[in-house]
Every structure is written in structure tokens, then in C-alpha cells.
Design brief:
D-Amino Acid Oxidase, Chain A, domain 2; five-stranded antiparallel beta sheet; 2 domains; FAD/NAD(P)-binding domain; 364 residues; six-stranded mixed beta sheet
Amino acid sequence: FSPSQPLDASVDYLIIGGGAVGLAVAERLSKRKGKSTLLVEKNFRVNEETSSEVIHSGFYYPINSLKTRLCIRGKRLLYSLLFSNHSNQINYNDSPTVDSSFIVDSLLVPTSLENSKSLTIPYYRLGKWVIAQTDDEFAYLTAIHEKSSNLGIPTYFLSEKLQKSQEPHVNAMHVLVVPTTGIFDSHAFMNWLEWRIIDNYGDIAVNSKVTNIIPGNDGDRRGYIVEITSTNSTPSKIKIFAKSVINSAGLYSDKIANVILPPSHHYKIYYVKGHYYRYHGNDIKVSHLIFPVPPKNLVNLGTHLTLDLNGRMRFGPDVLYVQRPDDYGINDDESRKDTFFNAVKTYLPRIKKDRLYADYAGIR
């Protein structure tokens, strides 16, 4: 296919989606000398969505699965970036709203833009506890310990005495510690990627929705004709030739793929919403992520406890199948709150129900 009308632009790499994956791909491709890179994002800015901001260790899924391999490699790459570039530690002890046990590392990244900007990516490798309340669940921990060893992921069991001294508010019969689990500021990380793309002379177009992709050519170059519609107040359409197109559209990646695939090969994403509840109060202190043994169906990892970089606790997520990828509404009814409370109090018995508040919901 050759366009009957002149193309508006031509690039080597066109990346669809300005989330963490799209930004990371664009940052890497923009380093290639003599190549042009364009990232397009339908929202009014990149870095618009959110996540749990947990750096996972990678042992929950089958050993040879792609998810396991990517999780382990991604964790190592991310920590390598953070460790090799961080220049100081941020001590939040002086903040009255923050758990004083938190010491958070920070990656300080200078950029060449204006020679005056620096971006920080706060992170904390605080570790995760996977906890068992029964002998059957302990058997699961033992299997995870052996599996982790085969994957090169360090884990170890904690004695009852150390359990009580490290986390006096946590109730558990057995604890498997995963020291490489951490948390980080994913939005700061994506801001850093965005600056790197710009610094590498890549381009980012927001308010730009991909509406069609057609295999085609620009002269003697084969590639794709990508039709893009502006989503701002004055809609317009352009056509861009791209030698390579990378689909990083997240929850909309099936729709992007189906534009170019035959109907017999179409994808369909099933959307699962998860709610999180936040705990308000200083009566309970926890310094690790706490994950109960997951349900046997592995639809989710159970109602676990995560911490943000300010030391505040939140619990979740649950599982709710929904029809739309933008269904972020919080279904905060009493029965849902009861479900969260009953799940959490098995390992945090001093928790108070009236201090649980719906925090946010997202598509998992």
C-alpha cells in the first residue's frame, strides 16, 4: 500500500502508549544514532496511570514462563539503575506523618537539559514477608523457598523470636522473607524516562490517538502507515510512516493489535478491577510488605499489605471483573469493607475497622 496523499511525517520507530513500558522502549530506542523515535499517547500527558509501585521478586509463576523471566530480569535491571546512580539517602524521620523506621534511598539523576535539572527516583528495598497460618500453607512456603533457590532468588525463613522483634503487630505461624522485594516511585521513574527521551532527541506526542495501522511503504522503505487523530479540542488527523511500530498501549493493546491482525487472530483483554483500602492511624507499625499465602486458583495474591514511600499502609487488591478498561470507580460498600477487614485481621489482629478507608481502584 502506498498512500494516495502525502505523508505528514516519517520515523524509524513509533511507540504507541506513554506508560512505563512505552517510555522504557522509547528511551532505549532513542539512543540509537541516526534513527528517529516518536512516542504517541492518547492522554493529555504521558505517565498518566498508576500501579502498586512494588518491585516484585518473580517467584509466583511457573519457572519457565515469560512472566517469571521478565519479572526477574526487570527487577535486576531496575535495581542496577537505582544502585549505580543513587547519590544520597532520604531520611523521613523528621516527618510527623511518616513511619520513623523508614530510610528511603533516592536515585539522583542529572540531565543535560538546561544543565540545571535533576530528577530523583525514591525507592526502598524493604523486603517482603510471605506468611503462613497453617501447616498446609507452610508446605507452600517450603515449595516457594525451593523454587526461589532454583531461580536464584534469595529467600529465608525467620524464627519466631525474630518475627516478634521485627514485626510485633504481625501474626504469623511461619514467615518466608524475600529481601529483594522493594517499592519505588514509579511516576518519578517515568518522568526520568521522559526526560531521557527528550534528551536523546526523541519526540513525544500527547493527545494523539492511533486510529488505523496499514502495512505500507514510503518510497523504497517498507513499514506501516499510522493514522493518528488528535484528541484535543480541535480534532485533526495525520498520517505518519513508521519503519517499525511498537504496541505498548496497555489496556488498549488488544484494540491496537486487532487493527492490523485478521479477525481469526484477534485478541481480547478481560478486565479485572482491584480495590485498595488505606489504613488511617499510628496504632499499628509495619516495616515490610506482608503477603499471605495466595489462594490456590492464583487469580490474585490474596489481600496483602503494601507500604508507600511515606510508610503508610494499604491493603488489597480484590478481584472484580468489569466490562470497560476505564472503570476506575470505587465500589465502597459495607460488605466489601467487611471482606477486607476479615482478611487483614488474620495477620494484623489489632487492626480497627473504622480506620479502613477506600483508597483507589485500578485495572490489574
